[in-house]
Specification:
This protein is an alpha+beta fold. It has nine helices and eleven strands. The strands form three sheets. Strands 1, 4, 7, 8, 9, 10 and 11 form a seven-stranded mixed beta sheet that branches. Helix 7 crosses helix 9. About 30% of the residues are buried.
């Protein structure tokens, strides 16, 4: 057989297992050997093979130059394990869209004085949270969780929204409860309160779970799009990046319009592409006409 294609890490694993790659390739009638082939030869399951992935990080970096070393925090290690598991187990798809925020910004300007008189900083995030709650009421499958065995779908009658907060200690996701029953001013006040307490590590365990969906807002930092990872047991997550003024054709001329890029990742076991597109179209329509948010 011709030269066998195998990465250095696969060849190293083969040597450790005492496997002749050329012989294995001939038996499998393959020209390329992967780690899964070695695991199958050793009688290991794919999960066991995944555990052997540590070999990719077991590298002496000092051979390439000077470096320093610092320990990862327990918080980071737990988050890494959860994110890795979510990304490995959930077949995720990300749907991208953008929302016209012209009406939201006009309404926010109109309510700004009232909000300030109550000590509330009214940001666009409060409108996103409310719009998401309104949309979730129209699409029950998005406000749901899949059972561990995949045989049952739990449809939630409440609407709780998780808000991802970047802190000095790592990412935290406090949850706003019963958002569908609250106005944007109350939502804005609760966002500020939860975010502030999260950054000071003063959020209680009872404020951290049970969300219908999570929002990851990078609008204050930048970016044009990203693919957020679904936060189980939720079935979707909404990502927001920086709003930009874009010329939009209104039928007669191009009008400068504030457009917010939106990115929703979803669990394809529960949600199909058509439903995701309809959900995002409804969310964008709700943001384009925020009168829906005042009902």
């Amino acid at each position: 057989m011709s030269t066998i294609i195998a990465s250095p890490s696969v060849r190293a694993a083969a040597r450790r297992q005492g496997v002749d790659i050329n012989e294995l390739a001939q038996r499998l009638n393959r020209k390329q050997i992967t780690l899964d082939d070695l695991n199958a030869k050793a009688g290991q399951s794919p999960a066991a093979g995944a555990q052997d992935m540590n070999q990719y990080w077991d590298v002496d970096h000092t051979q390439y130059g000077a470096l320093s070393q610092t320990e990862t925090s327990k918080f980071d290690r737990i988050a890494a394990a959860n994110l890795s598991a979510a990304n490995a187990l959930i077949p995720q798809v990300t749907h991208h869209d953008e929302a016209d925020l012209s009406a939201v910004e006009k309404l926010r300007a109109k309510l700004k004085a009232e909000a300030l008189s109550k000590g509330v900083k009214l940001t666009t995030l409060a409108f996103f949270v409310k719009a998401l709650a309104v949309t979730l009421k129209q699409f029950p499958k998005f406000n749901a969780s899949l059972s561990a065995d995949g045989k049952s779908l739990f449809l939630k009658e409440y609407v709780h929204i998780g808000i991802a907060v970047d802190t000095d200690y790592g990412l935290m996701v406090p949850v706003l409860r019963d958002v569908d029953t609250k106005g944007v001013l109350q939502i804005a006040a609760e966002i500020t309160d939860l975010a502030t307490r999260a950054k000071n590590r003063k959020v209680g365990p009872d404020e951290m779970g049970g969300a219908s969906m999570t929002i990851s807002n990078l609008g204050g930092i930048g970016g044009t799009a990203f693919t957020p990872i679904v936060n189980p047991p939720e079935v979707a997550i909404l990502g927001i990046t920086r709003t930009r003024v874009t010329p939009v054709w209104d039928g007669a001329e191009f009008t400068p319009t504030p457009m917010a890029p939106l990115d929703m990742s979803y669990d394809h076991r529960v949600i199909n592409g058509a439903d995701a597109a309809k959900f995002m179209a409804t969310l964008c329509k709700t943001l384009a006409d925020p009168r829906f948010l005042l009902v």
